[in-house]
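Entry for the shared binder. Reason: the reviewer on the internal report wants the predicted structure included alongside the sequence.
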Amino acid sequence: MQQKHFEVVIVGAGISGTALFYELAAFTDIKRVALLEKYEGVATLNSNGRCNSQTIHCGDIETNYTLEKAKWVNKVAKMPIKYGLKYGHEGKFMFSHQKMVLAVGDEEVQKLTARYGEFKEVFPYLELYSKEDLKQIEPNVVFDINANPRSENIVAMGTKEGQYTTVDFGAMSDSLVKNAQKIGGDGYELSLNCNVLDIKKVGDTFYLKTSDSQSISADYVVVDAGAHSLYLAHKMGYGMHLSTLPVAGSFYFAKKNFLKGKVYMMQNDKLPFAALHGDPDILANGNTRFGPTALVMPKLERYHGNSSFFEFLSALKFDRNVLEVFVNLMKDEDIRSYVLRNFLFEIPFINKKEFVKDARKIVPSLREDDLFYAKNFGGVRPQVVDRLNKKLDLGEGRISTNDGISFNMTPSPGATSCFETARVDLEQICKFLNKNFDKEKFKEEFLD
């Protein structure tokens, strides 16, 4: 079999891998790049529109972000928007909806009102909506099942128009591949049904063993394989102090359009997972989708008939330090209650009954019969555990080896920051291979 050698091989054709594929073609003089995807199409896992909230997270209504993180996220969130506008994707798979974060109760109202004063400077389009305002803007967050205004004190912070909020990142991934191949030509190859089983370095060259028995080698490798990234890193001896804790998110659909736009709840600072929110689903005629739930699952991916249980065990690397992290988390009453409730959300017959109690914080008139479980919706987030320091790692989720290979675990907001994640890889690749990165062209296309 003929050896196929590439300057760069990217493992994983989700939004992060395809963004890098595109950036290599558009902004460097690298001529030979392979994008390897284990399944039959691009972005069939977490980047698929069914497996995430389809949200551009820019830091304005995400109350778990500090002001400094919000400033950074706001900068990188403009990149997918600028890409979508350049290629005319607005109104096709990139949309502008109204959005807000809802505060319920005096304590949350006080916090959100103070946050508005702080964040308005960074996001000048933000407005603060009273209960009376919300009766007109988003009435279903106000009125209960008897059509009476809810008794709790509520305010919301958000915007009614002018901001791109929603993207089908699966469709964007497909666009990125097609445009990369147009720019890069025949040297930019996509291989589907090509599962990377092993990566070995001999001298200065990486050799990849694949399920379709291709003979592939590379000068540089980037692994953008979601929850499998750390699994592959461990097989090569990298990141051995880290573990992957796969957290699956599920959703519920409403039988009608309860919300005009995105409505997020205030985040509990103790919880590293997204707060419950309601969104008009662009793949379901705008029907409201509530979620996500958050449940630790003993597998690295969902819905492909592949349990990945043994890969989960390998990536978890369970030991006394990991156990101590779990025990310490469960000692906290808020976290313990959250974990137990999310477990109930996955149990048939009682799941809707329990879930609707939480969803009523957004739509107080919501009834159990209004919801149904969104089958085959929801992805897996690879929550990283630092075994050495005995804590959850809420940072970048990245292993840079300085040895010609890097691994990305794409933390939240992974899809939103895909072009920035790719840029970081791009600079390292060009430095390592002594190639040119056209920073001015990149700046012109993606930055203000």
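Summary line for the report: The first strand starts at residue 4 and ends at 11.
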